[in-house]
Structure formats: C-alpha cells, structure tokens
Amino acid sequence: MADTLIIVESPSKAKTIEKYLGSKYKVIASNGHVRDLPKSQLGVDVDNDFAPKYITLRGRGEVIDKIRKEAKAAKHIVLATDPDREGEAISWHLAHLLKMDENEPCRVVFNEITKNVIKKAVESPRVIDKSLVDAQQARRVLDRLMGYKLSPLLWSKVRRGLSAGRVQSVATKIICDREREILDFVPKEYWTISVKLSHVKKSFDAKFYGFDGKKAELNSEAEAMHVVKLSDGAKYIVKDVKVAAKNRHAPAPYTTSSMLQDASNRASMPPKRTMLCAQQLYEGVEIPGIGSVGLITYMRTDSVRISTEAQNAAREFIGKTFGTKYVPQKPNVYKGRASAQDAHEAIRPTNVDLTPAMLKGSLDAGQYKLYKLIYERFIASQMSDAVFETTTVTIDTDGDEVCTYRANGTKRLFDGFTAVYSMGEDEEGIGNNKTLPAMEVGETPKFNGITPKQNFTEPPPRYTEASLVKTLEELGIGRPSTYSPTISTIIDRGYVDREKKQLIPTELGFIVNKLMEDNFDSIVNVKFTADMEKRLDSVEEGNERWQNVVYDFYGPFASSLDKAFSEVERVEIKDEVSDIPCDKCGAMMVYKVGRFGKFLACPNYPECQNTKAIIEKIGVKCPKCGADIIKRRGKKKNFFYGCERYPDCDFVSWDMPLNEKCPKCGKMLVQKMGPRGRYTICSDPECGFVLRKAREKEGSEKEQ
To answer: Is the pTM of this model over 0.85?
Structure first.
C-alpha cells in the first residue's frame, strides 16, 4: 500500500510521474475539475459578496469515489495539478472535497515532468496559494456573471444560442474594426522604378531613391515618366559606398504567444491543435526503450527566462554539435514584457539530448512538428549571433537634374544561430545572401535597362490566428491560457469565419459587436479589459480582494444591462437559404449556427422543428448498400464516418474509409492516425493487413 497519494489532472501525466517514484507513491488523475459552478443556474450570490455556489460536477462520481478511496488509504496526500491559477483552484477544490487542511503543506508543482524535478518538488510541498485561487475565482465569477446575464439579452434581441465573454468580445471587436478599416480603405497610387546595372560583368538592381540625394515619392504616372526620361540610357556614377557589419541576435525561447504564432506561420498548425500537442508533450509521450517521458516544460507561460541548468546543458550541446564559436562568451539572457508573469520558465525541451530526429518515430505528425519548433528555437536562443556584412551603394545619374538610386547587398560572414533557426529576410535584406559587385566612389556601372511599375497602397491585412494572438498579447488582453480558447469560441459561435488562415467577421459578428459597442462600451474597450487583467494579477499577488474586482465591474454592468433590455430593439437576421428541402414540410432549409457549428434547420420553426447536420461527402461508397459515406460529428465533437442512409443502413467507422480494396481479403481499407503518422489498414480487424508509408510533409491540420 502506498504511503503517499499524489493527485494530478491527467492520466498521461500520472503515468509519467509514477514511473519516476517508488512503490511508496501512488499517482492518480482527477481528469480536470471536480467542482465548479452549476450550469443550470447563475451560481453566484450577488447580494452576499458574490459568494460562488460550487457543486460536484455531474458525471464525475466514479472518479471522485476512487480519489476518496485512495485518499482514505494513504498516510499523506499531495496535490500536484498544473502550475497556474486553474491548477491551483483544482487543488483547492480537491482539498475541500477530501476535507484536507489547506494550511498544511500539501501542494507541489512541476514546471517540467522529469525525474529530478519531480523528486525535488515532492520533497518540498507548500501550502495552497489562496491568492492564486482567488484570482481564478475572480475570473470565473466575472465570466459567469457576464455570460449568464448577457446571453438572455442576446437571445431576446438577436438569436438564441449566442454568448458574450470578457475576452472574446474584445477579440471580436478587434477583428470587426480591422474589417471596417479594409472596407473604408481608399487605395493611393504610387510608382517604383528600378534600373538594371552591371559592373565587372556582374549585374544588379538599383531602386529609385529621390532627386540629388534627397528622398522623393512618385505619386503619378507623369512623375514616374519624368524620372524614366532622365534615367533611360543615362550615365551612372557611384557617389557613396557604405559597408557595415551587423549582428543579428538569436530570438528568445518560446512563450505561449510566440509558440502559437510560429506554429501557425511555420507549420500551419492552428492554436487549438498546437495547445493540444503541447499538453501531450508536457504530460508525457511513450518513447520505446525509455517509457513515458515529459518532453517540454509547462506550455502556458509568458516568461522568456530559463534555468541555469538548462542553459548550461544547451551550451554544452551546442559546443559539441556545432563547435565552440557557436557558443557565446556570456550566456544569452532575454528580457520579457513588462507585464509578463515570471512564475514559469520559457517553453523548452526538458532534455536537449532528445533531438527531434531521435523522436520522429515516436511522435505523431503534430507532436513532431511542434517539438521540432520548440527544440530548434531553444537551441538557437543559446547560440552566438549571426554576423552579416551589409553594403549600401548610392548611384546618381549624370545631368542637370540628378536622379539618385540605391542598391543594397548582404553577405553572411558567420551563420551563428541561423545554422539551426532561420529568421527570414528583414527590411534591410539581412537573412539572405544578395551580394553586389565591388564598387568604389567615382566608378561608372553600365546601364542595361529600366523598369517603371505602377503600384497601389493596400489595406491593412486581415488578422490571422497568429497575428491576433500577437495583438492580444501586445494589448495585454487575456493570458497564455486564454489565447487559444478565445479564438476557438468566436469561430464556434459564428462571429468569425476562418478562410485560408484569415479571420473574417460574419454578419452575426458585426451585429453582436455593434450591440456590445452601443450598450456595453467598457466590456469591449481594450484599455478596460487590459486593466481588468492587471487587477486579476493584483489579486494573484495578494494585493487586492477578488470580490472588490467583481464589485467594481458588476455595478455599472448591471445598470447597462437593465437599460439594454428596455431600449435595444430586436435585430432581424435573414438566414442563408440552402438548396436542401425539408423532408417534413418541403420548405427550403436554412443555415443556422449552434454550439457545435453550422447546421440546417427548417425555416417554419416552431411549427416544424426539423434539423439536419450539414453533410460532407468523402467520395467513398458504403460497402453495405452503395450509398455515399458522409463525415459526421459526434456528441463529443469528434468525427466519425457513416452511411447517408442511416438508420436504414447501420454502416459506421471511426477511421476514414478509402476508395481502395484490401489486397489480402478484398474488403474496404481505412486510414488511421498513429504515433508515426497516418497509415492504412483493412476495415476487417480479423484480416490484419497493414500498409505503412513513409511520413509525408504535413500541411495544415484539417481536423481539430
């Protein structure tokens, strides 16, 4: 029987931790929260200092019974949930459930799930941090009050099933504001001119800079043609040559925000998929010959700090792998944002000796891509600067009215950290070699041609998930744990569509945003929301009562809510009509948005309450009846495949059917996802046929 019971959040983490501890320890999982506010009512006593009414979550009885049974048999109980506000709150709820004394040292945290860190943490438990718990309670109560009070307003004035939230409302406003900028944008004409020159048999391009060394813009065809007339066939004379060495510093290791941005931009992984893979890498992945291993540090952080131990390990690895010149004389230290919390390290690999190449066969496609990004970014962050030589040559035409051109060149002198992590090309051209012929003042390169080009200014780009995360972080809105769920929520609610990475507000998004702007200006005010985050941080630091934060918000909010109910007129939104007739009354069905995305509904509701899922055919015929197989979404949002004639035909498959027959038995082949990527098997488990193909480069993750 184990002396000490350790309770964590997830089964995979429990498995990894138990491997490192002896027989005196038993590790079990709570599977997330065990208590929360009730779904059927507000659950907050507004008149009694906003006291929350917590209940044991429905459906968690079996897990709770197991926890109580194991706790009763153990001499000591250690609460080891995630190292953040949410994790601290789960530990606090567990302590309440098990009738533990929260003033006794019972809480441990792991920034990384490795043997040394776990053993050290278990030996030094602390008391539950009530300030962290209070910060979580403040956020939970604020979100509940806003959600449960605003939703009825949106239902009565716009459409049922809608919601509003503290961070999601601001994110929606940011996207709507950008779309208005795009719609209101008036393009302006401008011209660029480049000349093709050559010197010592090497050609290069120079761009028009201005007149007689002074910068000038060309805003019309007449102005551009005047320059062409002066430059075409003219004599060109080198007036100035500037050569400088520039160092490019290595980027800091990842925070949650920078990881989400890079995963989106470099690996086409949406935030939701990225955070899922990061959670799996943190909690532990089964590695053949080693067992379950936590591969990265905690993935919800806005700190760029790393431990001295990790820094020394990286420097040693870099020296052995790349050579001593790639190791900076002094370790690289990075400064985070002023508002960053420094409770956790930056995101890094737990063991630099476990390279991505070594783990490729043990990770699925998403895990591998993310681990490779995290690993390479961390190693690069501890490497020497890349050194480039930049050359700027100023060239004038010879004549009464002088046209000035400039040519820029770059030569890499030392690759430094770019041997591991490429930063791309910046405005000065640094990043890629683009050399110029050697030139001196007074020399005359040969003219070979001129190219004028008409251009128009472009509107600001639409937000992508990556650029929205960056903007939210810069504005101080939300925290590392909220970026991904915020984006998922506004898409799921139908306020925003995602098209080729771009986030585009829908008509519904504009309507709800306008209602919020007109009646709840403070809620969608960027400064107000950022200040609220600072106050939650103040609660976490023990400087403020959480009830005071809620009180200051609720008074003005309740007043605005009463006014909106009486004054706001109902908005009629015309539903998009489909080409599918209702099979009960014959009316053409319309598209609706619900909790699980778009679906089809009869427009004659409530007389006719017929609804249908939107059918997505996969181009494969049912092996039982020959009808089309369609992709469906289950109750837990996971996808499966079934016959379109259901329930008349009961064919169903969790794996994607293929238009191929098994070469062994002739039955349908299906595609599965395993730790080594996608592979093909026979749909009949008794056949046993398996076809594995070499891993292909993955594109975007289509299914979340």
So the answer is: no
